[in-house]
Design goal:
alpha/beta, Leucine-rich repeat, LRR (right-handed beta-alpha superhelix), 29-stranded mixed beta sheet, 5-stranded parallel beta sheet, 47 strands, elongated, immunity, signaling receptor activity, leucine-rich repeat, innate immunity, membrane
């Protein structure tokens, strides 16, 4: 799960920036983009449709060191096209359609050291085309149609490597070259129809690598080198497939007799036994490559003279039989390749190679292994047995391989290991068992591999892991178990017990699927304290999946987690509590439609996050996620349409964001995002210039960055001025008003509430369920219960409504008050000091008073239980007005004449509701 963090960030129309390189590949470009920043040091324009390089294409790119234009349709390059790229060191023009190179095409490239132009159609090259490249060291012109190279070599005196394989060269004449000595070290003339190779001057004093391999055409090459010292430095020679007479081959080999160390004679048409004899007579020769020849039988005579050979390659030579003494002369052999032959068993001849360090028996037909197959190989370090039909191993098989470091047994037919790794191979570091048919790993199956660092078991059929399956692997750092049939239950068997140094574990493409996020009794990875990378993604396409709350318990050093395509329905917000060091998180391709900011709180070190294809409707969770170190964000193919400013501001370290494939809204909601994409110089938004609108319908299919933002323009400065001014005035006025008019404001507030209630019930015909609603404070409840109720209900028979008895449970208090007032003929307010201080009593009298004034009906009776000073009553100016015109009674002034008090109250309740009827006044309070 690696990625390249950009060195700088900005949004380009067709490219992205990664490590200072403009990546513009696979964009269907027909011309060089004009918005590549001048600060880049490399440009990748591979796999496009560019047909011409114009003189102005690279004018403002002076810092570019590498330029890759391979796999385009380039047919022409204007003169001076690279003249302004003074720092350019490497150009790749492979796989294009160039036919001609005219003078001036490489003007200004004095610093260029490497030019690759393989697989074009070059026929015509100007005599001065390569002249400006005075520092060129490598030139690759493989697979073109060139007929001569003399001009090329004359123009490039400092050239060290020239590859002109597979062209139309028919002759090579040294007299065509300059008389000055060349510094050429590598020359590839293979796959050309060379009829003559003629060297009459010492033009290759430094040549160490020469390839003259032939083509499939049946033609002979005449080899003429006047002086045996002209090829004195050649150490590697390839004459594979060359049609030459045996005497000519001998002459050629004699010329390199004093320096040759490596010889390739693959696919030769001459009698191989004689060639081998001649070759092994060279005392300096140590590497002999004989691939793809015809050697059905190998006996002791074939390599009798090869006593100095250290590496022998017989790959694909149709070997069937090898006599037991075939390699007895190869006393110094360290590397032997017998792969891709027709061997049914390990040749006994290999046991006579005590110095052997590498043995390749891969892709043969070996179907059985015996205990003595690798006897005496005490120095063997690498053994390749892969792609053979081997079904079983034996516990004695590797008994002598004490120094073996790498063993490859992948892609065979192994079903069981039979204890082959329980006691042997103490120095084995790399073991490949992938691609077999292993179904289970027994306990302590690898106990003897105490030095093993890399174990590949992927692409098997493993269904069962036992407790301590990997016990003994105390040095193991990498374990690959992907593409098996491991279930979540197998993870909890204790199979990973003992892997104290494991750093990377891959469990992708298994059958791990939890049905709930509840805590597991045995956390699967609690025995892996040093694990840094964990992959559990791609667990099938059926059914939803979850991760248990303690799924990651014990992984305090985890740096990278891959949960891609697990069909995760949700993630618990505390799932990452166990992984405080996490830096890379991949949860692509799940169904996480909503994420919580709390999910990311424990992983503040996160640097890269992959959220693509998750049905996310918003990225707002980032605003409180505390991801201050996040640099890389990929959130493609989701369902959010607006990218808010707060999201970006919450990710201050973000330098690379990929949100392609979302349904963007092209309106003022994305105004800030559009401006940020265009103007920001820190964060690179990949492919932003191709974002398409999805809403509104009139904009669908149009480009987001083409949205006209003039309709969203507003005078921000003026708005700020007005807002600031109003805020300042409020701060000045509000405290003063509150100080001097506190009670008036409070009273006005309650009047407003009462007005709202009255408006709601205005013009509603509510039947009178009660004769009177009694409004009183709870402190006055004893008087109401002991005095008022016995007289009014008990003796006089009135139907009274009291809040503690008749209010409807579950309904809001204000609704109960309003319903009680409007369903009663009159409202009787029992007024005291506590009543005036009560919020709910104030609301009750306000509602009653609004009914009085709005309905013009005598519906309000005031009863004072105590003397109320004018100073306390003055705040309730509405009540003062009522006292001057409405019925009111005073209990204290009734004294001993309570009978008269109750009679007056009875008459007040009995009267009609018209305001012009007679009022009953017992006494009048001094309210002035």
């Amino acid at each position: 799960m690696g990625f390249m963090v950009p060195a700088c960030g900005f949004s380009l129309r067709s490219c992205r920036i990664s490590d200072g390189v403009a990546i513009c590949s696979v964009q269907k470009l027909t011309a060089i983009p004009l918005d590549i920043p001048s600060t880049v040091i490399g440009i990748d324009l591979t796999i496009n449709r560019i047909s011409k390089i114009k003189a102005t294409d690279f004018m403002n790119l002076p810092k570019v060191i590498q330029l890759d234009l391979s796999r385009n349709d380039i047919q022409k390059i204007d003169g001076g096209a690279f003249a302004h790229m003074s720092s350019l060191e490497k150009i790749n023009l492979n796989n294009n359609k160039l036919n001609t190179l005219q003078e001036g095409v490489f003007e200004g490239l004095s610093q260029l050291t490497e030019l690759r132009m393989t697989k074009n159609s070059l026929k015509n090259v100007s005599s001065a085309a390569f002249k400006p490249m005075t520092s060129l060291k490598l030139l690759d012109l493989t697979r073109n149609q060139l007929k001569q190279v003399d001009l090329i070599l004359q123009q490039l005196p400092h050239l060290q490597e020239l590859y002109v394989s597979d062209n139309q060269l028919t002759t090579f004449q040294s007299w065509e070259l300059s008389n000055s000595s060349l510094g050429l070290r590598y020359l590839d003339l293979s796959q050309n129809p060379l009829g003559v190779f003629n060297v009459t001057a010492d033009v290759f004093p430094n040549l160490v690598w020469l390839t003259l391999g032939g083509t499939s055409r049946k033609h002979r090459m005449k080899f003429e080198v006047r002086n045996g010292t002209f090829l004195r430095s050649v150490s590697t020679l390839d004459i594979s497939g060359l049609s030459m007479a045996l005497d000519e081959v001998k002459t050629l080999l004699e010329m390199v007799n004093s320096s040759l160390t490596s010889l390739k004679m693959n696919g030769m048409k001459l009698k191989l036994s004689k060639l081998i004899g001649v070759s092994c007579s060279i005392p300096t020769l140590s590497r002999l490559m004989l691939r793809n020849n015809y050697l059905p039988t190998i006996n002791s005579d074939l390599f009798q003279l090869c006593v100095n050979i250290t590496e022998l390659d017989l790959r694909g030579s149709k070997v069937r039989n090898i006599t037991d003494d075939a390699f007895k002369s190869l006393r110094s052999l360290m590397i032997l390749n017998l792969s891709h032959n027709n061997l049914s068993s390990v040749p006994a001849a290999t046991r006579n190679l005590p110095t052997l360090q590498e043995l390749d028996l891969s892709t043969c037909h070996i179907n059985r292994l015996q205990c003595d197959d690798f006897a005496n190989h005490t120095h063997l370090r690498q053994l390749n047995l892969y792609q053979n039909p081997i079904v079983h191993l034996r516990d004695c098989l590797f008994k002598d391989l004490q120094q073996l470091s790498t063993l490859k047994l992948q892609t065979s037919s192994l079903t069981t290991l039979n204890g082959a790794f329980k006691k042997r191979l103490p120095n084995l570091k790399n073991l490949s068992l992938n691609g077999n048919k292993i179904t289970s790993i027994n306990s302590e199956e690898f106990r003897g591999l105490t030095s093993l660092q890399n174990l590949s078991l992927h692409s098997n059929q493993i269904k069962k892991l036992n407790k301590r399956s990997f016990a003994g692997l105390t040095s193991l750092a990498n374990l690959k178990l992907q593409q098996n049939e491991i279930t979540e239950k197998q993870l909890e068997t204790g199979a990973f017990d003992g892997l104290i140094n494991l750093k990377r574990l891959d469990l992708t493409e298994n059958k791990i699927k939890y049905k709930s996020s509840s805590t597991r009794k045995s956390p699967p990875f609690s025995d892996l304290p040093r694990l840094e990378e964990l992959s559990v993604g791609l667990q099938g396409k059926r059914g939803w999946s979850y991760l248990p709350q303690n799924f990651l318990q014990g992984l305090s050093n985890l740096l990278s987690l891959n949960c891609r395509n697990m069909r995760l329905k949700s993630l618990r917000k505390d799932i990452f509590n166990f992984t405080p060091q996490l830096e890379n998180l991949d949860i692509n391709s799940n169904t996480l439609s909503d994420l919580s900011s709390e999910l990311f709180s424990p992983i503040g070190n996160l640097k890269s996050l992959y959220l693509s294809r998750n049905y996310l409707k918003s990225l707002d969770f980032f605003t409180h996620a505390n991801l201050s170190k996040l640099e890389f964000l990929q959130a493609r193919m989701n369902q959010y349409s607006v990218f808010r400013e707060e999201v970006i501001r919450s990710l201050p370290a973000l330098v690379y964001v990929d949100i392609k494939g979302n349904s963007f809204t092209c309106d003022c909601d994305n105004e800030w995002f559009i401006q940020w994409v265009i103007n920001d110089t820190q964060t690179q938004v990949v492919d932003a210039y191709n974002f398409q609108c999805n809403y509104p319908p009139s904009m669908k299919g149009k480009l987001l960055l083409n949205f006209d933002m003039q309709s969203c323009s507003r005078d921000t400065a003026f708005i700020c001025f007005v807002t600031t001014t109003l805020a300042t005035l409020c701060l000045m006025v509000v405290p003063s008003v509150y100080h001097f008019m506190k009670w008036q404001l409070v009273y006005t507030y309650y009047i407003f509430l009462a007005w709202l209630a009255d408006t709601k019930h205005k013009n509603r015909e509510v039947p009178h369920q009660y004769d009177a609603f009694i409004s009183y404070n709870t402190h006055d409840e004893p008087w109401v219960i002991q005095e008022l109720l016995p007289k009014m209900e008990g003796e006089q028979g009135w139907r009274l409504c009291l809040h503690h008895r008749d209010f409807e449970p579950g309904k809001s208090i204000i609704d109960n008050i309003t319903e009680a007032i409007y369903s009663s003929r009159k409202t009787l307010c029992v007024i005291s000091s506590g009543y005036l201080e009560s919020e709910w009593c104030s609301r009750e009298i306000q509602a009653a008073s609004f009914r009085l004034f709005d309905e013009k009906k005598d519906v309000l009776i005031l009863v004072f239980l105590e003397e109320i000073p004018a100073s306390k009553l003055s705040s309730y100016f509405r009540m003062r007005k009522l006292l001057k015109r409405q019925t009111y009674l005073s209990w204290p002034r009734a004294g001993e004449h309570t009978g008269l008090f109750w009679e007056k109250l009875r008459q007040a309740l009995q009267t009609g509701q018209e305001l012009d009827e007679e009022r009953f006044n017992l006494t009048v309070l001094d309210t002035e």
